Amino acid sequence: MTASPLLRSYDDGRLSLPNRIVMAPMTRGRADDVSAVPHPLTREYYAQRAGAGLIVTEGLWADPLGKGGPGIPGLVTDAHVAGWREVTDAVHAAGGRIFAQLWHVGRMTHPVTLPDGELPLAPSPVRIEHQQIFTKDGWLDHVTPRAMTTAEAEATIAAFAAEARNAVRAGFDGVEVHGANGYLVQQFLAENTNRRTDRFGGSLTRRLRFAVEVVEAVVAEVGAERVGLRISPDNPENEIAEEDAQGTYRTLVDTLAPLGLAYLHIIERGAYPALADLRPRWPGTLIANFNGPQPTTREAGEKVLNAGLADLFSYGRLFIANPDLPTRFAADAPLNPIRENLIYGGDAEGYTDYPALTPTPVG
Ligand SMILES: Cc1cc2nc3c(=O)[nH]c(=O)nc-3n(C[C@H](O)[C@H](O)[C@H](O)COP(=O)(O)O)c2cc1C
Q1: In the CATH scheme, what is the code of domain 5-342?
Q2: Which helix (H) or strand (E) holds 220?
Q3: Could you say which of 5, 73, 78, 264 would form a disulfide bridge with 305 (CB–CB 3.0 to 4.6 Å)?
Q4: Is the per-residue pLDDT at 1 higher than 50?
Q5: Mean pLDDT, the chain, as a whole number?
Q6: Could you identify the atom of ligand 1 that is nearest to the CA of residue 180?
Q7: Interacting residues of 152 by C-beta distance below 8 A, sequence separation 6+
Q8: Where are the domains of the chain?
């Protein structure tokens, strides 16, 4: 057994967790592509991982136009709620805690993925130029998205709030607003994707407004203690270019700090040292994540916690291959390798068939 900061319990009076290891949100593309109801094995997949201090689900779309690709589940219809209720019941029965990630992809989708072949909606008609998008018809060039009207932006904020309400109906312990990785919320934050001149664009305050109003609307619906926000300052993923990440995220964090959210989840990726810069400004729980070419190591997370840069650390790819990751860390046990070709779509293979440690027979 190793004394690891990851294995210490955490209790801030609201989140009470047996360890500081969070399962990061990860899209697995296994929902029914038409109904967007979770795969029958999804309850087993998450229940197997209930030893995490906290699970954050894969992104779940808040609106049919917020769906990014094949097999991505939603949390909009009664059938979605019923499907996720089975998942949350299974995780709770296994002793875990689970938040739903609330997601709208904005321009990061394609008409073949959207109802009636509609154009993707985004803050501004800025096309992704240098990468393709995965669809049921394979990899396709991006189209130019249509700019949301002010009323559509407001309706989308309401859709996030409605999704949060559905999350509570489905038995989730809370929700995480996906404000990271170049999806809709970050498209409003970033200068290169938000060229609007209405109340959602122009000045810094206006660029922040969509993110702030989404969080406020979700908080009004389910209570701040059940709401987290994920951000990825300066992350260039999905052709985001933030000219002033420090100014943008300091102001965002200062604006949201008084709300008393459950947590802030920071992906540190770009040149801007987001954890060191934002940690002193955030009074609540902070979850850190690194997103590099290789799966983040146990040691990287321990270093962050030991340096006091975060309270909790989230792991993605290690959790795909190691359902019992905290147990393996505690036992200094070897880790299963991930099978990259089985990450997205399909059935049990590469999903629920990664083995847990076999207990050593006694006697
Ligand atoms: C297969 C896969 C799917 C992902 N899907 C999401 C997602 O739905 N929402 C999200 O915020 N991040 C998503 N991410 C990013 C992860 O949450 C995490 O930031 C990333 O994997 C880095 O952590 P790691 O090094 O521990 O894997 C995804 C990552 C992977 C590998």
Answers
A1: 3.20.20.70
A2: helix 204-222
A3: 5
A4: no
A5: 97
A6: 11
A7: 121
A8: 5-342
Higher local confidence (pLDDT), 166 or 360: 166
Q: Are 223 and 167 in contact (CB under 8 A)?
A: no
* Residue of 55, 291, 299, 322 to mutate, ligand 1, most atoms within 8 A of C-beta: 291
- Please give the number of the atom of ligand 1 that sits closest to the Cα of 317: 27
Q: Give burial (CB, 10 Å; 0-12/13-18/19+) of 202.
A: middle
**Residue of 27, 57, 109, 312 to test ligand 1 pocket, by largest number of atoms within 8 Å of CB:** 27
Taking only the tens place, the pLDDT of each residue in 249-298 is: 999 999 999 999 999 999 998 789 999 999 999 999 999 999 999 999 99
Q: Is 181 in the pocket of ligand 1 (CB under 6 A)?
A: yes
Catalytic-labelled residue, pool 45, 46, 183, 272: 183
Distance from the alpha carbon of residue 363 to the mean position of ligand 1, in angstroms: 42
Which pLDDT value is given to residue 358?
77
Separation in Å, CA 122 to CA 4, 17, 148, 224, 299: 43, 37, 6, 27, 38
Backbone angles phi, psi at 122, to 5 degrees: -150, 170
* Mean pLDDT on 61-65: 98
The per-residue pLDDT for range 311-361, each reduced to its tens digit, is 999 999 999 999 999 999 999 999 999 999 999 999 999 999 999 997 665
Residue 210: half-sphere exposure toward Cβ, Cα within 13 Å: 33
Query: How remote is the CA of residue 235 from the centroid of ligand 1, in Å?
Result: 13
User: How do residues 192-217 score in pLDDT, each as one tens digit?
Assistant: 999 999 999 999 999 999 999 999 99
Say if residue 8's pLDDT is above 50. Answer: yes
Strand partners, 230: 178, 265
Calpha distance 247→143 (Å, rounded) = 31
Q: Which two tokens stand for residue 170?
A: 């489905």
> Measured in angstroms, how far is the CA atom of residue 7 from the centroid of ligand 1?
22
Ligand 1 centroid from CA 66, angstroms: 18
